[in-house]
Design a protein that fits this description.
Layout: H1 6-18, H2 21-47, H3 54-100, H4 113-153, H5 168-178, H6 183-187, H7 194-204, H8 216-220, H9 238-243, H10 249-260, H11 262-276, E1 285-289, H12 312-326, E2 330-334, H13 337-344, E3 363-366, H14 368-378, H15 380-385, E4 389-392, H16 399-402, H17 404-410, E5 426-428, E6 437-438, H18 448-457, E7 462-466, H19 478-488, E8 490-493, E9 510-511, H20 517-526, E10 529-532, H21 541-547, E11 551-561, E12 578-580, H22 583-589, E13 594-597, H23 602-614, H24 627-640, E14 661-663, E15 670-672, E16 690-693, H25 700-706, E17 710-711, H26 716-719, H27 722-727, E18 734-738, E19 745-747, E20 752-756, E21 771-778
Parallel strand pairs: 1-2, 1-3, 3-4, 4-5, 5-6, 7-8, 7-10, 8-9, 10-11, 11-13, 18-20
Antiparallel strand pairs: 11-12, 14-15, 15-16, 16-21, 17-21, 19-20, 19-21
Helix pairs in contact: 2-3, 2-4, 3-4, 5-7, 10-12, 11-24, 13-14, 19-23
């Protein structure tokens, strides 16, 4: 039979009483500190192999003083723990004395239980101190070894003279002087040695050739591309609402809009799926970074959402997110710089280095603010991946402003241009700039029942003013034409105010204050007229009014507004002249839905009001501004636009064996020959090309519109040859190639033909009375000017 010593029981019981939670915690800290110490030392010793690269040795040697410092801190921590435990033991002794009721001494086999623990911790602290000394000696030996290895490889770490890498030596010189300017270089292993410079410049960046003595297996191992997944249309947008985030008034507005339009997106997806049939659509991984909503850009929009501020940008972004999601693509949404850096894989530092990983996104949709943020933080990766970027650009960017060198030399440089992107990467709110891609937005589409209800509920003498901010009502001369309008119609406003009626709003105007979107829609459904004051330019509200059965009345600008004469357009990367508040409504919709008159001419204005009151219109919405129209357009862009491939057609001087053009039967323009082979990568398809010679001083944009066509800048390379002029029977006494956004063109007098030298400068926009421009035009689908008849 086994007997148990009663003294042993007492010892165990006292140990359990003594080791209270705090002391258990301290003991645990000591134990885990020791584990961490041994793990760290094990990593140091196991990595110390002579066969390792200089980077490996450098990393560990640089970590030597750091490791010694950690060891010292551990030793100090354990010493502190010893002192704390000593104090706790004394307190325990006192409490034991009180509990013993006067027992003033302990026998030798009944020592306080804290004493044994104290001895163990003191032993651990002494061992850590001894280990620290030994590790210090080993690391000093490693430094000496590293120095010898570096001496042996010094001849292998000189900048090579390789004609394929002409910038290598210059970059090494730059690294010598500036490698400490950004912590990201140290993050990638640069330590001030020649070897680290060359390894960085050959393996992280690509200015130097790979070093022959480096193990290239790891450096060249690219991640396997993910298997392609077919995109499937989505109808439930609840997950998208989660992706959009929260916390900003702008995001709340966008989410409400998306939720309100969910049923229309679902119906549009069903229709487009039927139209596309079995067409395979690969799912793209897409990052959407809304730069103007980031705190770093100021986020001036969110605070104004509830105060009548502009909502056009947020309307468009909400619809872009919905369209991409409904089309079935993988989506990531960021509205902060920190989120952007995390998703891109930006290394720590100031943005001088490339990304830490290959870009995980096929496409990035952003704005000018986001574009600037990416350039600041992506280093050389920005240049590598910028072909994947799509820039949402309300007013457009013309090629002359986009090309950095050309813009600088010829006075086109602004705060927003000079990005050297393909101009089609800029995506506009309206199709006013064919050099860019038309992105657009959507307006709510009414069914037949709703249209009939609206027609029956219209007030024949009710007008609503376009303008929610009081500043818009400060327009000089408004009293004159509003007085005329007031004779015929009851005028309503939706001007934001907090406590008092805005003094800018005349007393005869019934102001409803800022209305939520559903209530504003109801107001439009009752009104006969929606009238603009000339600002804001090209917003979504006029289309919403027309879709709800209103007639839109706007001012004609004479002279037209542009960056030359109007502060609003000054600094924007476009020379476009705006002849009215809403050129799209004037040119693509027109009467009876849109009337454009001179507000300064009282007789013309009053006559227009009388005519409008007699005019009956049905609610109308262009197809390209329906959910289906936007889905169709973005689908085509994602499927066919690829700006990462090398340019297809040849530049000046390269001649095709047989010209693909023939002169049209009426001898006015060129057409693609029926027996000519099509350019395999051309989109839009080359057979839709029609080439016209513009009259002097006429831009290609206007020339194509004159013939019921759209200018197509991607066709310029096909025309950029002397053969095109010869086919049009234009005599060229001389032919030259230069950088000019008006070329190819024919100059009179002199009979000189000019070809384009820089592909990024092919431009539909721009004119000069000296030149007759050679203009590529194409047809377009009814209600969808962005796509040719064979583009889908």
């Amino acid at each position: 039979m086994i007997t148990v010593n009663p003294d042993g029981k007492i010892m165990v019981r006292r140990c359990l009483v003594t080791l209270r939670p705090f002391r258990l915690f301290v003991l645990g800290i000591g134990f885990f500190t020791l584990c961490f110490l041994m793990t760290s030392l094990g990593g140091q010793f196991s990595a110390r192999r002579l066969g390792d690269s200089p980077f490996t040795i450098r990393t560990e040697v640089m970590g030597g003083p750091e490791s010694r410092g950690v060891l010292r801190k551990m030793s100090d921590l354990l010493e502190l723990m010893v002192k704390r435990m000593d104090a706790l033991a004394r307190l325990e002794n006192i409490s034991e004395l009180h509990r013993a009721g006067g027992d003033l001494h302990f026998p030798a086999d009944r020592m306080p239980p804290g004493a044994g623990l104290m001895e163990r911790i003191q032993a651990i602290a002494q061992n850590v101190s001894d280990i620290a000394v030994k590790v210090d000696q080993i690391l000093r030996h490693s430094l000496l070894l590293h120095s010898k290895v570096s001496e042996g490889r010094r001849d292998q770490c000189e900048a090579p003279s390789d004609p394929k890498f002409p910038d290598c030596s210059g970059k090494v010189e730059w690294m010598r002087a500036r490698w400490t300017s950004d912590p990201c270089y140290a993050f990638f292993g640069v330590d001030g040695t020649e070897c680290s410079f060359l390894i960085y410049l050959s393996e992280v960046e690509w200015f130097c050739p790979p070093l022959p003595w480096r193990n290239q297996t790891a450096a060249q191992r690219a991640p396997k591309p993910l298997p392609k997944v077919q995109a499937v249309f989505r109808s439930n947008l609840s997950h998208l609402l989660d992706l959009m985030g929260s916390g900003k008034e702008s995001l709340i507005f966008m989410k409400k809009r998306t939720k309100r339009l969910t049923a229309q997106w679902a119906l549009a997806a069903q229709r487009l799926a039927q139209k596309l049939g079995a067409t395979r659509r690969d799912q793209k991984q897409i990052l959407v970074h809304i730069g103007f909503l980031t705190e770093e850009s100021g986020d001036v929009f969110s605070p104004r959402v509830l105060k009548g501020g502009p909502l056009g940008e947020m309307v468009q972004w909400a619809d872009i997110l919905a369209a991409l999601y409904v089309l079935g693509h993988g989506l990531r949404v960021t509205v902060s710089l920190k989120e952007l850096q995390s998703n891109l894989g930006v290394p720590p530092g100031r943005g001088s280095c490339p990304l830490t990983m290959p870009l995980p996104f096929d496409l990035i949709y952003t704005d000018y603010h986001g574009l600037q943020q990416m350039k600041q933080h992506m280093g050389l990766s920005f240049k590598k991946y910028r072909c994947r970027i799509r820039v949402i650009d309300t007013f457009g960017t013309e090629p002359a402003y986009n090309h950095e060198e050309y813009a600088t030399l010829h006075g086109y440089r602004t705060n927003w241009g000079y990005w050297n992107l393909n101009p089609k990467q800029f995506m506009t709110m309206f199709p006013h700039t064919p050099d860019n891609s038309f992105m657009g937005f959507v307006s709510e589409e009414l069914n037949e029942t709703e249209k009939q209800l609206i027609k029956g509920g219209k007030a024949s003498n009710m007008a609503v003013v376009y303008g929610k901010e009081a500043s818009i009502w400060k327009l000089q001369g408004k009293e004159k034409f509003l007085g005329i309008l007031n004779k015929y119609m009851e005028i309503h406003g939706t001007v934001y105010y907090e406590s008092q009626r805005p003094p800018e709003v005349p007393a005869f105007v019934k102001n409803h204050g800022l209305l939520p979107q559903p209530e504003f829609q109801q107001l439009l459904r009752k009104a006969k007229l929606f009238i603009g004051f000339g600002f804001p330019y090209e917003g979504p509200a006029p289309l919403e009014a027309i879709a709800n059965g209103c007639i839109f009345l706007q001012s004609r600008f004479s002279p037209p507004h542009s960056s030359l004469n109007h502060e609003f357009f000054r600094g924007k990367p476009t020379s476009r002249e705006v002849f009215s508040q809403h050129p799209y409504a004037e040119n693509f919709i027109g009467k009876p839905h849109v009337w454009t008159v001179d507000y300064n001419n009282s007789e013309e204005f009053e006559a227009a009001i009388k005519a409008i009151m007699r005019t009956q219109v049905d609610p109308y919405l262009p197809y390209e501004y329906t959910c289906e129209g936007m889905l169709e357009r973005i689908h085509a862009y994602i499927q066919h636009q690829d700006f990462c491939v090398a340019p297809g057609p040849a530049l000046p001087g390269a001649h095709t064996p047989q010209s693909p053009f023939v002169l049209a039967p009426n001898a006015t323009h060129l057409e693609w020959a029926q027996n000519a082979s099509l350019a395999p990568a051309a989109w839009p398809p080359a057979h839709s090309l029609r080439a016209w010679l513009a009259t002097p001083g006429r831009a290609c944009t206007d020339t194509c519109l004159d013939h019921g066509l759209i200018c197509e800048p991607s066709f310029f390379p096909f025309l950029n040859s002397q053969d095109a002029f010869l086919k049009l029977q234009v005599p060229c006494d001389s032919t030259e190639s230069e950088m000019n956004h008006l070329y190819p063109a024919f100059a009179q007098p002199g009979q000189e033909c000019y070809l384009q030298k820089e592909p990024l400068l092919f431009s539909c926009a721009g004119s000069n009375t000296k030149y007759r421009r050679l203009c590529p035009c194409r047809d377009f689908r009814k209600g969808q000017v962005a796509l040719c008849q064979g583009c889908l």
